[in-house]
Amino acid sequence: MSDTNQPIETATEPKATKSIVPSKYSGRYKNGGEDALAQFIKSQCTVDGAFSFDRFFELCSANGIAQEKVDHYKNQVAEKRHGAEGRARMTLRNMLATFARKNGKLVGLDGNEEEVSLPKAALTGAAKAAAEAKSSAA
After folding, report:
1. pLDDT tens per residue, the chain (138 residues)?
2. What sign does the dihedral 97-69-109-40 (CA atoms) show?
3. Rounded to two decimals, what is the model's pTM?
4. Domain ranges of the chain
5. Beta-carbon neighbour count of residue 94 at 10 Å?
6. Quick one: which of 45, 68, 60 has its CA closest to 99?
7. Within 10 A of 114 (CB to CB), how many other CB atoms are there?
């Protein structure tokens, strides 16, 4: 009897991912990141080992992010729109980073202020070129 009906072994294809984050950056953002802000968010928003979006949205509101922005992302997550969880975490996290850089602290869910030290954002690309052009023109 011939084995011609057996599947031919082929090289294993890489696992397809639905993430929009390029693979070269995926390690940096895995599990929410490792910088001071990421650690603060994890400490405030992790419940039983899982990230709680309800706590995250509450944290964003407590730190002065406009309620309409928080509600916008909260509704997207609730509707289970494709990529909504990642967009919410990224966008609102960047807004929290702005507050942390400006004030050096954020408000925890318990109402206490906690120091969150982040380096100033480095300019790259067109923003860097514009800043350099502005400083050389002065």
Report:
1. 555 565 555 555 555 666 666 666 665 555 666 788 999 999 999 999 899 999 999 999 999 999 999 999 999 999 999 989 989 999 999 999 999 999 999 999 999 999 988 877 777 888 788 888 888 876
2. negative
3. 0.71
4. 32-137
5. 11
6. 60
7. 14
